[in-house]
Amino acid sequence: MEPRPRSFYLLTAFFALFILFLYGPTITIGILSFQGEGGGLTFPMRGVSLYWFYDLFEQQAVGDIWGSFRRSFTLGLMVMVVTVVVSVMGGLAFRKKFPGSNILFYLIVTSLVIPSILISLGVGLLFSQSGLDVHWSTSGFGSQLTWTLPFGLLIMFAVFNRFDKSYEEAARDLGASPWQTLRHVVLPIIAPSLIGVALFGFTLSYDEFARTLLTSGSYNTLPLEIYGMTTNVTSPVLYALGTLTTLFSLLIIGAFLAFALLANRRRAKAGSDAGKGLL
């Protein structure tokens, strides 16, 4: 076997440093969260224990950690459902050109480049000037959709751009109605992509800060609560919270990946069964 060039080792070292830079802060917070009762916010560690995780579940003197978590989780689910539904509808609509479709496409993408804090300010002002309550479930919900919908729509545009229309034509030839074709042919085929859009919608909403800052009203979401804790909490309980939220995020990602894998296997099995039926 030929010896590997020196550039290989240089690129490997560079990639390792990049991974360390990417995940180093998260790993550091995870390590510091396991300090003993007398631990502080910096190294060196003072003992090793689960004290701060237990303390996290006790009645907190400051903040509303679990209330903010429930709000972020609920908001994430709301945003996820609407993002998936509207993205699919938009993807289907853009399969054919219609008057103003190009302008509408650029308007959708534009919301991604507008500073998030300006979106938050604008949505908050719109609700307050209209006499509506500025609340995480209304104005916060709307401001987060300006962030998640463009991603979902761009994914669906790419999916339907590569979608083989012969599947739909075959279903119609067999007498399927448009709704049956959508439900039993199109949606099962694009199911892995729908799971990806759902994952985008939930995770982008769950950790969104800037677009929720001026639209959440009197009740904080989890990112806002954590930010507030950084100004008045001087113990590793903050790190314990960061560790748990990171593990929760990884759990959500793992669940979505498992659903995507299951959808792929079912689609492959359905295709195999259909092929056997033809034989």
Q: What is the CA-based Rg, rounded?
A: 24 Å
What is the name of the CATH topology of the domain at 64-232?
Answer: MetI-like fold
The total count of strands amounts to: 0
Give me the CATH architecture of the domain at 64-232, please: Orthogonal Bundle
The tally of helices reads 12
Proportion of beta-strand residues: under 5%
CATH H-tier superfamily of the domain at 64-232:
MetI-like
Mean pLDDT level:
86
Give the helix/strand class. mainly alpha
Helix content class: over 70%
Stretches with pLDDT under 50, minimum 5 residues: none
Cα-to-Cα separation, first versus last residue = 47 Å
In sequence order, what are the helices and strands, one letter per element? HHHHHHHHHHHH
Could you give a short account of the major beta sheet? Answer: none
Q: How does the overall form come out from the CA principal axes?
A: globular
CATH top level of the domain at 64-232 is Mainly Alpha
What does this protein look like?
The chain has 279 residues and is mainly α. It has a domain at 64-232: MetI-like (MetI-like fold, Orthogonal Bundle), CATH 1.10.3720.10. The protein is 72% helix and 0% strand. It contains twelve helices and no strands. The chain has helices spanning 6-32, 51-56, 65-93, 101-113, 116-129, 139-161, 166-173, 178-189, 191-206, 210-213, 222-229, 237-278. Helix 1 packs across helix 12 (237-278). The radius of gyration is 24 Å and the shape is globular. The model has no long low-confidence stretch (mean pLDDT 86).
